[in-house]
């Protein structure tokens, strides 16, 4: 009879160990860490999608620039006609140079008078 009583006491002690709250607290902490990691992965996926949209827009802009270059070549032909007008202005400048030569002759007369005074 004594052996049976001792066995019953041992079984009760094992049940108390399973009911401890310490084991439950450890499980809750692990679950919180896993949730934080999942949120970070979602943010990275959104950034990659935005980069793909920018590449498509750049291809469309390059096609528009090529069409504008053809229009600029036609404007250069009109500028050649304006150069002929500039040549007419050069002929007028030659007449002004003749007037400057007359002024230099007058300065020589003033120098001669200055030498005669002393």
From TrEMBL:
Highest taxon in the source lineage: Eukaryota
GO cellular component, one term: nucleosome
Species of provenance: Penicillium angulare
Region named Disordered: 1-118
Any one GO BP annotation for this protein: nucleosome assembly
Biased amino acid composition, Basic residues: 1-107
GO MF annotation, one: structural constituent of chromatin
UniProt protein name: Uncharacterized protein
